[in-house]
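Entry 14. Structure prediction run on the chain below.
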Amino acid sequence: MLQATDTSQHHQTVILLQTPNCRAPACTTVSTMKLHGITLLECETADQLQRALRAGCTVGVVVLVEPSQLESIAACDSLLGQGEVLWIGLIARSLLALPAVRTLVADYLINFIALPAPIEHIDLVLRHARGMALVRSQPRSALSDPVASNDPAPMVGNTVQMHRLLHQIKRIARTDAAVLINGQSGTGKELAAQSIHRQSARRQAPFVAVNCGAIPAQLFQSELFGAEKGAYTGATQRRIGRIEAAQGGTLFLDEIGDLPMEMQVNLLRFLQEKTIERVGGNQTLQIDARIIAATHIDLAEAVAQGRFREDLYYRINVVCITTPRLADRVEDIEDIARHYFVHFAHRHNRSLRGFSKSALQAMLHHGWPGNVRELVNRVQRAVVMAEGRFIQPEDLGFDRPSEPLVLMSLDHARATADRAMIRRALAQARNHISQAAQLLGISRVTLYRLIEKYQLHPQKISLISAHGEQFFQLVSALHAADSEGDAAENYGELTR
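Output returned:
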């Protein structure tokens, strides 16, 4: 067993994290640490923590000895993720079984000690953490980098929509049929095309992507079909076009719906004949390339409006698949974010440990109009901009929620909606049960049962049961009364 020497037991300075319900200096363990020569910098706010970091502190302790302190654990999240501090937990043994404490240990602490514990043990663990912090602070260039993968980015997802898409891709890859990929911008249409190519028999041949909407009209012919030397001013040598470059492999025509009508004619001839001629040449070249097209617009509607050639549409739409929106597969958001976090953190910020709980909540409740592309961009920006050890909502470009989001159960939500609709129907029917039941599309018996269940207007319910139609007539009279005094007098007559 390792033992701390007498000389090693002095001149330690560590951060002591304090929260409103955590007055650890009253704890015997903290007092013993001070007597042992360990200097504690007490921090309750982010500003105090930043000052401690500027003072050179890289190790901190969180002391939990009373159940009442657990109310402040949620408040610790924002502080524990600040800076590159390595946190140690000094936790009463009786609290270790609690889920909140286990989550705190797993997410934010590099080690913990069950109290009571010898001060020598605490001192040794703190010194070990200090050594780890020193190693982590070494220049990254001195650390060996793993071999970077040259594979294209994979399609990440475990939802029903993604399983269906991956299954379709696997089946399509076995054939050479032309494929049309529909989907909003940023949903991963090019990734789907690359996946088809990688799983096909053409995987060893080139995958050539062409953004049809980005090619100027005057350059379209030479870009796609190539040009011979001297074909136009500045053509000093033969140029191989994109189509010829895809020989034996896959030609991906991205955003084909943005292709102007006059260019669609040239592309159609190649798709029909599978031959091309370079600009300025007379030699016919046979091209063997699989065609995969993608679009973010409805091509069938574009055909109906005369903006897209019908014959070209049927040439490229042999097999059709759709990439789902990110908002339709919310369950995949965390997996995608973590995948790209690992990728970007390795390149930009290795000290980061992941996403805070508030950051994950912010991602789950964002609409993602930019789909997966927006998520990837936000994660990359957060990795670059994050100052703490955990990514916060503001690093992702979101506002930090003022209070935690509380989800209600389905039964609670249903009951809330029922109460609101019953109150509205009763008000509209002037508390006439038959009319209210008719408005709601239910029987009077069902409405009586729901009123009793939700305890709506209990005084009126008893009156309804006792006086029937007499009550409804008086309610109408009350509603038409000119003065509050008259209404009160009539109401008193009924109740008597």
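Confidence is low (pLDDT under 50) at residues 1-10, 139-152, 458-496.
Filed with the rest of this week's runs.
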